[in-house]
Structure formats: C-alpha cells, structure tokens
Amino acid sequence: NTNYLIAPSILSADLARLGEDVERVIQAGADVVHFDVMDNHYVPNLTFGPMVCRALREYGITAPIDVHLMVKPVDSLIPDFAKAGANIITFHPEASEHIDRTISLIKDHGCQAGLVFNPATPLHYLDHVMDKLDVILLMSVNPGFGGQSFIPHTLDKLRQVRTLIDNSGKDIRLEVDGGVKVDNIAQVAAAGADMFVAGSAIFNQPDYQEVITQMRQQLSK
Ligand code: DX5
Ligand code: ZN
Questions:
Q1: Is 142 in the pocket of ligand 1 (CB under 6 A)?
Q2: 71 C-alpha to center of ligand 2: Å?
Q3: What's the CA-to-centroid distance between 182 and ligand 1, angstroms?
Q4: CB 81 within 8 A of CB 181
Q5: What average pLDDT does the structure give for the chain?
Q6: Annotated binding-site positions for a divalent metal cation
Q7: 2 by DSSP, 3-state: which?
Q8: pLDDT per residue as tens digits for the range 156-215
Q9: Which residue among 11, 15, 38 is best mutated to probe the pocket of ligand 1, counting the most ligand atoms within 8 A of its Cβ?
Q10: CATH number for 134
Q11: Most exposed of 3, 7, 180, 191 (fewest Cβ within 10 Å)?
Q12: How far is CA 115 from CA 21, 65, 101, 125, in A?
C-alpha cells in the first residue's frame, strides 16, 4: 500500500524532441520528471540547466519536476531552478560548502529539498539535517551517465536509510537512481525505496507505457 513514484530520467530522452518525449512518458503513466543537471566539474558530463526546465513548463508539462543537481557550487542555481518550475531539488552534500544553508535555500524558494548520496558517500551527512529533508536520494551508480548497472551494495544502504526514516517518524521519500529496471525494481522496493528513477530502462524501449506498467506490476507483487 506504499504510494510509489516512477520518475523517468530525461537524460535518456530524445533531447532534440524533449517536450514531446516528456509529454509522451507522462501520458504513459510516469509520475515525476527526473531532471539530471551535470556540470562537467562535479561529474564528468554536461547536460542542461534552468532554461531547459522553464522550456518544459512553457511547452505545457505540468508533472512535478525533480531536479537532481550534480553541480559544484550548488547554491547559485537554486533560485533559477525554483523560478524555472522545479518542485524538488536534490544536491550532493559534498558539493555544498554549507549543507544546512543549501537545504534552507531550496525550501525558502518553495521547493522540496533532498540530499543525494553517491555509492561511497557516507550517511553521516544526514545526522543534523534529517528533519529538514523531504527526499533522500541514493545513487545506485556513480553519477554522470545513464545506462550503467545497478550496484548491489545499494540495497544494504537503502535498508539502513529506510530504518532511519521510519525511526524519524517523518514523511521522507526514499528515491533511488541508477540502473533501475523491470527486473530489479521489486527488490529495490523491498529494500525500502518508494521513488524510482529510470532512464534507459524506459526511454530505450519503444513503448513507454508497457515498461511503466510492467514496473507497477512488479511493485504491486
Ligand atoms: C546518473 C543520473 C541518472 C541516470 C539514470 O548520473 O543521475 O538519473 O539518468 O539512468 P539509468 O536509469 O539509465 O541508469
Ligand atoms: Zn539522476
């Protein structure tokens, strides 16, 4: 009876027809648009910024937009993304000089805030900020590229964070990002995730609705 969210990563969308492709994946039953921002500095790749987020809003996309900031520094982009239509903004704690300040900045701009943990980033970053978070995102691949394989150790980390969230009594989403597909989504959910990013697994198939339906079937088992 968990309310699961499926968040296609537009990193794997048809970038030359982004509006249409995002529209199509939302029509196919996706809940949230996962928007990967890479700066060729914090991560080795370069994607898109607030202007592209705004363009999706102007195109008519009304679904929540989940902005995953893989950038350093972080803070200067937050007001721009909030104005461009972001709903959730997550960032990597090691990319921020002042984690508490960055979280406050996101919330002061009316967005939900989340911390992102790379596969080897320790969870102690949660220690003093847990009660300010709306989302905790665990990377199940090293950030920078779509189409990588799920790192199995993430399942242990998900279970640890699920316990922390349950003990906190707070309503915090546990999002997972990287290598999620129909074949492993049930296992990832069983470890405690309730929000699933999937890029290549959805956009590399011709029928998005079929993939999303299969994912939901896995989640309802
Ligand atoms: C990786 C990105 C992911 C990526 C996921 O740095 O944060 O969102 O697009 O792609 P898949 O689902 O193909 O692993
Ligand atoms: Zn991402």
A1: no
A2: 12
A3: 15
A4: no
A5: 98
A6: 34, 36, 68, 177
A7: coil
A8: 999 999 999 999 999 999 999 999 999 999 999 999 999 999 999 999 999 999 999 999
A9: 11
A10: 3.20.20.70
A11: 3
A12: 28, 16, 13, 9
ipTM confidence score: 0.98
- Over residues 66-120, the pLDDT tens digits come to 999 999 999 999 999 999 999 999 999 999 999 999 999 999 999 999 999 999 9
pLDDT score of 2 = 78
Domain that holds residue 208: 5-219
* Number of domains within the chain: 1
Residue whose CA lies nearest to ligand 1 atom number 9: 146
Q: Are 213 and 29 in contact (CB under 8 A)?
A: yes
Residues 173 and 139: beta-carbon distance below 8 Å: no
- 179 CB less than 6 Å from ligand 1? yes
Sorting pLDDT into bands at 50, 70 and 90, what band is 1?
low
Mutation pick for ligand 1 pocket among 5, 22, 36 (CB with most ligand atoms within 8 Å): 36
Measured from the Cα of 181, ligand 1's closest atom is 12
Average pLDDT over residues 41-62: 98
Amino acid letter for position 71: V
By DSSP bridging, strand 112-117 and strand 135-139 are: parallel
